[in-house]
Amino acid sequence: MNKSQLIEALAKEENLGLKKAEEVVNTVFGEMENSLVKGERVEIRGLGSFKVKKYDGYKGRNPKTGEVIEVSPKKLPFFKVGKGLKERVDVA
């Protein structure tokens, strides 16, 4: 499912216009993004949690040339799946 499919599903499920459903989805995602940018954790019960992980810099190697390069420190978003979702997906 992509974002436009989510908007369509929300519009259908809640009897909303596509514009209103798009506003709702964009607001939710925008607030999640703003929280992560501020370094806050976002938790959605039953789904999982998002947080920003910090990675230290290190010396890496260019696989094509073998040259040693410095990889700078970085921050990346990380998603940890919740127990409820994990159990629902792992049904054999």
Describe this structure in words.
The structure is a single chain. The protein has three helices and five strands; from the N terminus they run H-H-E-E-E-E-E-H. Helix 1 (3-14) crosses helix 2. It has a three-stranded antiparallel beta sheet. It is 42% helix and 29% strand. It folds into two domains: 1-40; 41-92, IHF-like DNA-binding proteins (HU Protein, Chain A, Irregular), CATH 4.10.520. The longest helix is centred in the N-terminal third of the chain and has 20 residues, at 18-37. It has 92 residues and is of the alpha+beta class. A hairpin with a 3-residue loop joins strand 1 and strand 2 (48-55).
Question: What's the quick description here?
Answer:
The chain has 92 residues and is of the alpha+beta class.
Pairing-aware structural class of the strands and helices? alpha+beta
Task: Please write the string of helix (H) and strand (E) elements.
Answer: HHEEEEEH
Question: What would the principal axes of the Cα set say about the shape?
Answer: elongated
| CATH architecture label of the largest domain | Irregular
CATH class group of the largest domain: Few Secondary Structures
Lateral arrangement of strands in the main beta sheet: 1-2-5
Distance separating the two termini? 22 Å
Helix content: 40-55%
Low-confidence stretches: none
Q: What is the average per-residue confidence, as pLDDT, rounded to a whole number?
A: 95
Number of strands: 5
Total count of domains = 2
What integer value in Å does the Rg equal?
19 Å
Look at the structure and name the CATH superfamily of the largest domain.
Answer: IHF-like DNA-binding proteins
Biggest sheet details:
3 strands, antiparallel
What is CATH's topology name of the largest domain?
A: HU Protein, Chain A
Total helical segments: 3
Sheet-strand content, in percent, reads 25-35%
